[in-house]
Design brief:
Elements (H helix, E strand, L loop, with lengths): L11 E4 L12 H9 L3 E3 L17 H14 L6 E6 L1 H12 L4 E7 L9 H4 L5 H9 L3 H12 L8 H14 L4 H13 L11 E6 L8 H10 L3 E4 L6 H4 L1 H15 L2
Parallel strand pairs: 1-2, 1-3, 3-4, 4-5, 5-6
Helix pairs in contact: 2-3, 6-7
Length: 260
């Protein structure tokens, strides 16, 4: 959800990851906005969702620069609070390092940052064959089914068919091209984070059953940057889809600590 009104203190910007768009948040933004009584803005990266016809950026810096332009065009001014998942979290980290006065708080979900973790933790090796087929030969429906299986525990639930059909409809209406997928993937692979953490309050959330990224990535990052980490024992990569209530609870507890 988005508005053209000036940004209020505490406005949250929500960012998703590779090939995903704002509609993949589902009901989470509305729930989040109700729980925190704060404005929520969901943005798409170029090449995804409402911007699917645009060429994706091939580096993280260009991604956050585009986000800043979008926010300015929508009439929203900093500072922002950013909740970001996966590739979106990489973008948020770099943005906060370059413009700390614009990002007042960061919540990062299941991210992985070089040089802190090796490639085989940042993308689990058992997924390489499926991802190669995904890029080369998979149909749109097969792509979405694979993403659901790799990123959510909902893939084994009774809700899975409805979720999958919804995602397929998103992909048909706003398809991410193979070229844009590769550009986004290159941006994620080539990004190198600075040794020091951004100089803003930072919370890490991670799913211990993440089938896409090894949870050790978040554990290592929390140790290096000396920031709080909360682990969900049962969730996979897309924790807001698997357990939105838990995400909101962890953020509320953390805000109560950092805002005293």
């Amino acid at each position: 959800m988005s508005s053209s009104a000036p940004t209020q203190p505490g406005t949250w910007v929500l960012l998703r990851g590779l090939m995903r768009e704002q509609r993949h948040w589902g009901a989470f933004p509305a729930q989040f906005q109700t729980e925190f009584a704060a404005p929520v803005i969901c943005l798409d990266f170029a090449g995804n969702g409402s911007l699917h016809a645009q060429a994706s950026a091939s580096n993280v810096a260009a991604m956050w620069q585009d986000l800043r332009r979008q926010l300015q065009q929508l009439g929203h001014s900093p500072p922002y609070r950013v909740l970001a998942l996966s590739l979106g979290a990489m973008v948020a980290v770099d943005w906060a390092r370059q413009f700390p006065h614009e990002v007042e708080k960061l919540v990062l979900i299941n991210t992985s940052l070089a040089p802190f973790n090796p490639f085989y933790q940042r993308l689990r090796p058992q997924n390489y064959p499926a991802l190669l087929r995904f890029l080369c030969t998979a149909s749109l429906a097969q792509r979405e089914a694979l993403i659901l299986r790799l990123t959510s525990q909902q893939s084994a639930s009774a809700a899975a068919p409805a979720i999958l059909q919804q995602w397929i409809s998103y992909a048909r209406l706003c398809p991410s091209t193979r070229r844009n997928i590769l550009r986004q993937l290159y941006a994620a692979i080539s990004y190198r984070a600075a040794p020091e953490a951004p100089t803003v309050p930072l919370l890490l959330l991670a799913g211990q059953q993440d089938r896409l990224v090894n949870v050790q990535c978040s554990i290592t990052l929390a140790q290096r940057w000396r920031c709080p980490l909360r682990l969900h024992p049962h969730a996979s990569h897309d924790i807001p889809l698997d357990d939105a209530d838990w995400v909101i609870q962890q953020i509320r507890l953390w805000l109560n600590q950092v805002e005293v």
